[in-house]
Specification:
This protein has 686 residues and is α/β, with parallel strands linked by helices. The protein has 3 domains: 246 residues, Rossmann fold; 221 residues, Dimethylsulfoxide Reductase, domain 2 (3-Layer(aba) Sandwich), CATH 3.40.228; 121 residues, Barwin-like endoglucanases, CATH 2.40.40. The chain contains 24 helices and 26 strands. The strands form 7 sheets. It has a 6-stranded mixed β-sheet with strand order 5-4-16-15-14-6. The termini are far apart. Bound molecules: ligand MGD (2 copies) and molybdenum atom. The site of molybdenum atom has 2 residues, from loops.
Length: 686
């Protein structure tokens, strides 16, 4: 029996969790915490369960060719050679007939890592063979990136914080951040627990009383989804009314704060954003808002940890911008134990090489939330006429907004191919499905979302003929195009890893490979601390050298639910990475609708009933789960249920528990970012 370091490299907010696998006879017997990582950086149950994911009997173990209608789930096994020849020919034909931009790269972060990065590898292959249409930004954080890049300019990439700085916090605000369930880094949970042991109060602003809140013994501030900006304005109003804003301090660090304050006080539009005004919109009592403003200003310092949820709403850009304004207004910006209000993953990881995407300068671009519209509409609304899809490590038919539209888009294609481990809805709608190797079958370097460390994993288990790494698949396709040398640069997978390490800051590579973790020197970075301490000496990479809070507002909140309508949230599940879980029993996989007990009673719904949920976009059914931990007027249907089982497949089948049957591809006003929370729906017995 040998013990080797491993990590998942899946897209669940850690990306790099230090695990240790016990391997014997070509099997992983057990996965535990890697002690070399120390007590703080830790994996979760999904990682400890990685061997089951790998061993699942549901894994696709041979290349597949579609034999029935798209979406029917009817496939026949074919050889690797035939599959790769068909993919090559399909793409070559598409390029010849419709141009390079007729191929859409629909890959996602199914696998992350320095080498086995599904999105980067797909782009590399498509870029080397002529180019394609790519998706801009991400479902994750497009609105925040948009707003924060404007606020911080070139310094957006160093505006986060290391979790260890929480040791200096006196008050921690989790704003739509459910970090023990929807992980935002492998170190936050242990650091938060430690802060609680020191007696530091933690407040969770969330429409749901989450397990994070319960586990930490945090206070709950319930709020309607998509209305956070109203509460943020009112906090700024109250801070101003209490004389708690040091204008000289703020104006030395921010441009445009005066205009923001004029809006908040009502000087510019006649509506003071008082706590009473906000209470009617966000459902938080005025006294509570007044109290929170005072606590925020009194604590030295207050750490604001925004989740990504609050920017996956109609006012997403504004919520991101106001987080920054709040930290500036309260003097907590850029100090250890405080935060800039930016996303926590905005600090560099240790220097290390990674696979390049090649030259993408000829590519056409589409906002991610609009990919199905781009297929269905084409020019002049979108830059290219898309006829083919290449997808590796993504299940966008299910995970993108508006599943019905996504199915129509797939149905309209000439050709679609994906690499998958499981027969997902997206795979079901492809022409060719290529079986991908699991995380345990790939050597790689893990680069975390948040944290100053790197992980290493050797290939823990061999690959059979039934699965290939995404890299191998692309290399074989490149070979068919006469591009193998260009794609591989003559390197094997292992040689790439060595090259990345040579280009890295890791001194003792042997120890790194053996222990599986390397820590960068400074573990307590407070983003933009230099600028915050001395803005004159360390100006930001913006036009003014300061944080830019432009005089514009991106407010489009729906406000309190009215009449028959509920506001839907579609959060992450603790036990799943997005829609993954093809290895779970269906009953576990299918999400239930969480609804407040009193709302359910008013609708005549009992636990276990089937509810019909409808939005302007579409409808879905889900089993009812009664809850005392969700705000009245709000319902929660987690993301990730597959919209239909492969066998139930085709058109007409009503999606079961699929939240994206209800979401729209419209996107937020300014940056066209997805809106996955605060969606107006009606609920009744099916
Ligand atoms: N277990 C697990 N963890 C993950 C992932 C996963 O798939 N599984 N995915 C990772 C990825 S890719 C990402 S981008 C991040 C996303 O991380 P987040 O976007 O932060 O995660 P969500 O679960 O969508 O939302 C977090 C919390 O916000 C609450 N919420 C929803 N809407 C609102 C709102 O309008 N206002 C407020 N105040 N709260 C709201 C929800 O009830 C939920 O408890 O998570 C990462 N972590
Ligand atoms: N309603 C709603 N929808 C959402 C969200 C939400 O909050 N609510 N969140 C959004 C967010 S933040 C995100 S990031 C997206 C995520 O959307 P996706 O990226 O589509 O998420 P996954 O379901 O994780 O799909 C990844 C797929 O990759 C496969 N895979 C795993 N490892 C490998 C590998 O090594 N190689 C290959 N080829 N495949 C592999 C998995 O089996 C899985 O099917 O979803 C978005 N959709
Ligand atoms: Mo994400």
């Amino acid at each position: 029996m040998s013990k080797v370091p491993v990590f998942c490299g899946r897209d669940c907010g850690g990306d790099a969790c230090p695990l240790l696998a016990e391997v014997e006879g070509g099997k992983v017997l057990q996965i535990t915490h890697n002690p070399a990582a120390g007590p703080y950086v830790r994996g979760c149950a999904k990682g400890f369960d990685l061997a089951h994911f790998h061993d699942s009997p549901e894994r696709i173990k041979t290349p597949l060719l579609r034999t029935g209608p798209r979406g029917s789930g009817e496939f026949a096994p074919i050889s690797w050679d035939e599959a790769l020849d068909r993919v090559h020919r399909g793409l070559v034909n598409c390029r010849a007939l419709h141009g390079d931009a007729s191929i859409l790269c629909l890959s996602s972060a199914g696998s992350t890592g320095a080498l086995h990065n599904t999105e980067r590898l797909t782009r590399r292959y498509l870029n080397f063979s002529g180019g394609c249409t790519v998706l801009d930004a991400s479902y994750s954080s497009a609105a925040a990136s948009y707003a924060l890049k404007r606020a911080f300019g070139g310094d957006y990439g160093r505006s986060g914080f290391d979790a260890a700085t929480m040791a200096k916090s006196s008050f921690i605000v989790l704003w739509g951040a459910n970090v023990l369930e929807a992980r935002l880094g492998a170190e936050l949970p242990a650091r938060l627990a430690e802060a609680r042991r020191r007696g530091v109060p933690v407040l969770s602003i969330d429409p749901r009383r989450t397990r994070t809140l319960a586990a930490l013994g945090a206070e709950w501030l319930p709020i309607y989804p998509g209305t956070d900006v109203a509460l943020m304005y009112a906090l700024l109003f109250q801070l101003h009314r209490d004389g708690r804003i040091d204008r000289r301090y703020v104006e030395a660090r921010a441009a445009g704060f005066g205009e923001l304050l004029d809006f908040v006080t009502g000087a510019s539009d006649g509506t003071p954003k008082t706590p009473e005004w906000a209470a009617a919109i966000c459902g938080v009592r005025a006294e509570t808002i007044v109290g929170l403003a005072r606590r925020w200003a009194d604590a030295e310092p207050t750490m604001l940890i925004p989740g990504y949820s609050i920017q996956r709403t109609e006012s997403g850009e504004e919520a991101a911008r106001l987080c920054v304004a709040l930290q500036l207004a309260t003097g907590n910006f850029g100090i250890p134990g405080g935060s800039t209000g930016s996303l926590n993953n905005r600090l560099p990881a240790p220097r290390v090489g990674s696979i390049g995407e090649g030259d993408g300068s000829r590519n056409a671009h589409v906002p991610i939330v609009r990919w199905a519209d781009a297929i269905l509409e084409g020019p002049p609304n979108y830059p290219s006429r898309i006829r083919a899809i290449y997808s590796a490590g993504g299940n966008f038919l299910n995970q993108g907004a508006d599943i019905a539209k996504n199915r129509r888009a797939f149905a309209a294609l000439d050709f679609a191919v994906c690499h998958e481990l499981f027969m997902t809805p997206t795979a079901c709608w492809c022409d060719i499905v290529l079986p991908a190797a699991s995380p345990l079958q790939k050597e790689d370097i893990g680069i975390p979302w948040a944290g100053n460390y790197l992980l290493y994993k050797p290939q823990a288990l061999p690959r059979g003929d039934g699965e290939r790494s995404d890299y191998e698949i692309f290399a074989a396709l490149a070979e068919r195009a006469g591009l193998r040398g260009a794609f591989t640069e003559g390197r094997s997978e292992s040689q790439w890893i060595d090259a990345f390490l040579e280009a890295s800051e890791v001194g003792d590579i042997e120890t790194f490979k053996r222990e599986g973790i390397y820590f960068g020197a400074d573990q307590e970075r407070a983003g933009l601390a230099d600028f915050a301490a001395d803005p004159g000496a360390f100006p930001l990479g913006t036009a003014s050298g300061k944080v830019e809070l432009e005089d514009r507002r991106w407010t489009a909140w729906k406000g309190a639910p009215g009449g028959e309508a509920f506001l839907l949230v579609t959060p992450k599940r603790m036990d799943r990475v997005h829609s993954q879980g093809g290895d779970y029993p269906r009953a576990v996989r299918e999400n239930r609708l969480e609804i407040n007990v009193e709302d359910a009673a008013a609708l005549g719904l009992a636990a276990g009933d089937l509810a019909l949920i409808e939005s302007v976009t579409g409808k879905t059914t889900a089993e009812v789960a009664l809850s005392g931990s969700i705000v009245r007027g709000v319902v929660s249907l987690p993301e990730g249920s597959w919209f239909a089982e492969p066998s139930a497949g085709g058109e007409g089948a009503l999606p079961a528990g699929a939240s994206n049957a209800l979401t729209s591809t419209e996107g937020t006003l300014e940056s066209r970012s997805c809106v996955m929370h605060g969606v107006a729906v009606t609920v009744r017995k099916a």
